[in-house]
Design brief:
304 residues; alpha+beta; Alpha-Beta Plaits; GHMP_knse_ATP-bd_CS; ATP-binding
């Protein structure tokens, strides 16, 4: 068994409008762990997006890896982990789901669990609580998923989307738990039917890769955006400016506060340049769909 690995996990966006807790899209923004078997636990953060003050026993990577090992009656051996991330915390870009997927992969490697892809989908979605971000980080591409009461995940996987994505990241955090507090407890039947129909059309448009329709239905959400948008800095202004600049559509990324636009590939950097002028208080990044999902590379140990 190799004693050193690099685990790479893509971040993700969820919902994309009305695909509430079921649609996820992997993005080419990554969490990376370099893992070495060691005599004692050590986790080193080498990214500005990661905190420097933490306890090993409270760290999400450690707790989830330990929980995963224990599910299979294994003992997690100590590791030295160097952790890098392009995913800001609590911004709606799947940072927690990526960490969960990475931790499951860590346990899989160092404990020889031989987990299947379906195992990873089930475990990560159960821990995350819903399958949108987690399935996208495991598989890459776009995922449309459902998790039953036993925690079994069924996923339709859409690959090779021919579009680009632009994320507008404000310098404020919004935890999903806080964003859920503003949602209604229930909807009347007619409202729920319209909301569900919009979600169905979004999913079908992604399967067909009909980008004009994808954009239209991204902007048709009734489940959460009407209630969360007031928590999001400059949401309406970004929506209007992106449309004027040629975006197919714009929506919250997950629970926010990041906003995401889908754009034609040929707009690319020109679109980003316009948006940076309009919204200087946001970090604005051009990204694509990641096509690999979680990946592992064995790193040779070089003796010095």
């Amino acid at each position: 068994m190799s004693k050193k690995w690099q685990i790479t996990v893509p971040g993700s966006t969820a919902n994309l409008g009305p695909g509430f807790d079921s649609i996820g899209l992997s993005l080419s923004l990554y969490l990376e762990l370099t893992v070495t078997l060691a005599d004692q636990w050590e986790i080193i953060h080498v990214s500005e997006h990661l905190p420097q003050d933490f306890k090993i026993e409270d760290h999400l990577i450690f707790t989830i890896a330990k929980e995963t090992a224990e599910r299979y009656q294994k003992s997690l051996p100590p590791c030295r982990i160097e952790m890098r991330s392009e995913l800001p915390f609590a911004r709606g870009l799947g940072s927690s789901a990526a960490a969960i997927v990475a931790a499951i992969e860590l346990a899989n490697l160092v404990c020889d669990l031989n987990l299947t892809t379906q195992d990873k989908l089930n475990l990560s979605s159960q821990i995350e609580g819903h399958p949108d971000n987690a399935t996208a980080s495991v598989l890459g591409g776009l995922t449309i998923s459902q998790m039953d009461e036993e925690g079994n995940v069924d996923t339709i996987h859409v690959q090779d989307l021919d579009a680009s994505f632009v994320v507008f990241i404000p310098h404020v955090e919004l935890k999903t738990s806080e964003a859920r507090k503003v949602l209604p407890e229930q909807f009347d039947r007619g409202y729920a039917v319209r909301a569900s129909a919009n979600a169905n059309m979004l999913a079908a448009s992604f399967v067909l890769k009909d980008y004009e329709r994808i954009g239209r239905y991204m902007e048709s959400d009734l489940f959460h955006e009407p209630f969360r948008s007031k928590l999001i800095p400059q949401f309406d202004e970004i929506h209007c400016a992106a449309k004027e600049a040629g975006a197919y559509g714009t929506a919250l990324s997950g629970a926010g506060p990041t906003v995401i636009s889908i754009i034609p590939n040929n707009l690319g950097e020109a679109f980003v340049s316009k948006m940076k002028v309009r919204f200087p208080s946001h970090e604005i990044l051009l990204t694509k769909t990641d096509h690999k999902g979680v990946s592992v590379t064995a790193v040779p140990n070089i003796l010095t």
